[in-house]
Amino acid sequence: MKIFNYSLHRPIARAADAARDAQDWSKAAELYGEFIEKNRNNKKILRYYIQKGNCLKEAGKLKDALETYELAETIDNRNSDLFLQKGHLYKVMGREIDSVRSYQTAFDLDPQNIHAKHELERSNWLITSGILDHSPTSKTKQQHIIWLDVTDFVDYVKVNVSLSGIQRVLLNLVSYIKHFDIPGYKIVPVIPEYGNFRFFAVDTEKFFDLIDIFNAVIIERHMIDTALEAVLSSKKNVSLQDGDIFVVAGAFWIFSHYDLIMHNKNVGVKFGLFIHDLIQVRMPEYVEKAATDAFQIQLSDALDVCDFVLANSEYVAQDVKDYLHVEKNYSLPVEAILLPTELSEKNINASITNRNITDLSSKNYALVVSTIEVRKNHKLLIKIWEQLREEFGENVPYLVFVGKWGWEVEKFRQYIEEQGYIGDWLFVFNGISDAEVEYLYKNCLLSLYPSFAEGFGLPIGESLAYGKPCIASNTTSMPEVGRDFVRYIDPFDVESSYAVVRDTLINRDDLHAWEQRIVNDFKPKTWEQFSREFFTATVKYAELLKDKRATSNSYLPSCTLIAGGSHDILNMARRGEKIITFRSARKSWWYPANHWGAWSQNRRCEIEFISDCCEGEVVDIFLRLHRQSARQSDPIAIADAGTDPHAFRLSEHQQFFKLSGIVRADGVVNIQLLARGKFPGNTPQGGFIGWSGIAYCKQGHEDDTRRTYDALICPGRLPVDLPFESTEPLILE
């Protein structure tokens, strides 16, 4: 009967072939689909799947073509031509790495597949750059890739000719690719387009050329621009695979959202975050409010999709653990990878022509290298030097500041200018070269670093690496950097700090002995050692977590209303509440979260979170949904959480809708949503379904149900029990 049916439907196949030959791709794909549907169980059907996929590709229906090829793969995953055609499709889609992987599979299955061999030979850049270790003549085990985000570095050098500490970290992590040797892994620098949901790998050799410029003595803008253009021109669209690792080691808070990472976690990619400090949320008085708010939102979102955290000091590592314990309702692996104190390999011996700098070499001076901003506490040093000059007059060493002017120092700057200090006994240098900074270090008596708070405190290590004594703050991470080679002060106490500085300056023999001890005994940690520890830890946690369920950290407590807007994050932080949102529960087909919640970007979308219930339990779920405002009949939303589907008519006003669901393994609750009917539009400013709140409880538990309704409805309280709280307290002067 099957043979009879197959022959009976041959006219459909012939019509499909004719449409294909006439390049009527859509018609051909439709006919091939009809033939497949009528002969689905026939083993000879594979080639018609391939033909349908080819026609869909030619018709520009790339996603449908990929779906067709993947269905064909379930029938026979040993067909070389299938993977060849799939490779062609990936190339059209701009997914270069996927295309090479498919071509390699086609070649491995049939070494006589000349087309696959030619495509692999054309992909030489991907192979030589280290992204893939395949070639047509050798079969090597496919390696996982550590995708290192270098976006922060690239954006920074577009407008700067010298590097900050964070960019220096990225530079050295990329440089370490030359020495990386963990079996089964490769490192590839990548520049994601977070807003466009795409990853772009860049040519590693061209990136080496770019970072080499910053290891040179003389750095000019045109040199950076030329090398940067070569890097950006080498970008290749790539897709991440199960077992890969994505790592952000730069300024993670500069990205608009982390949905790209959240989506890739669904396919088994692990995400590691390197955190430099939490000063912006721990000590917001030292940071501009807008920057603090942005950091608070991005920190919450990044941790909610993170698998492990690396930190630049033990202090920051503990701070992250405390943040997770107090502000979140889950834990993550957190490990400190202390930053190095090694100096650059530039071996600078350049001639210094700035006489304002060279004239200082014959003078005694104390050096301060840092951005001049309120957190760095330069004000303390001015007060100390005023006292020193009052006591010792002109015998006091000069004070030298090196750094750009930063935040909240206008009054401080006005004060030192109006007092006439600058150019007398105080010297301020901005934007000088690395060679000039090195010159100042080598010729100073000692360095000072009275910062209120640091994630690490790199200038302390720099001073020691130059063999120079340093007096630094005894707070946060700074004692980790200086250890017992540094003398410490309380940055909040002028008098005790004055005593330490005074005693050091008046006892020059002791100062000289201190310097000699540093020269003899201080052993800087190298960048190579740091990078090795960094990537070893990255692989270690990826391996430990490889069997972990591919999901975000969307742990939502029962009997509680969970919101998802950025304003909700800021309000929870201000009130000292745990920052728990549904943002990482937007499993698929949602626009990025906004100030109130999120819009779905497709008629079908998915919610998934981890409950505190057990597998098999039935829960009542309450979703707060709405649609855009429009003069038309209200469309409906259909929700299915494992029991019977529930339909709700959507309004432009936010409403709670109740449905029931079944808890899956590991406490997971999954909700499939379908938007049915006519909707006003579909943009990030207004998609299909608007989601602004969720709550759930065990079905049939009276107390849990009451608590949940109280959370949703919020019973009124006496005014005395609910005082007004200003978001920004003002002082009447």
From TrEMBL:
Check the record and name the CDD domains matching this protein: GT4_MtfB-like
Q: Domain (Glycosyl transferase family): give its ranges.
A: 361-516
Q: Which InterPro entries match?
A: Glyco_trans_1, TPR-like_helical_dom_sf, TPR_rpt
Gene3D superfamilies registered for this protein in UniProt: Glycogen Phosphorylase B, Tetratricopeptide repeat domain
Q: Does the keyword Transmembrane apply?
A: no
- What domain of life? Bacteria
The molecular function GO annotations come to:
glycosyltransferase activity
Q: Where are the TPR repeats?
A: 80-113
> What keywords are annotated for this sequence in UniProt?
TPR repeat
Q: Indicate what this protein is called per its UniProt record.
A: Glycosyl transferase family 1 domain-containing protein
Organism of origin is: Acetobacter orientalis
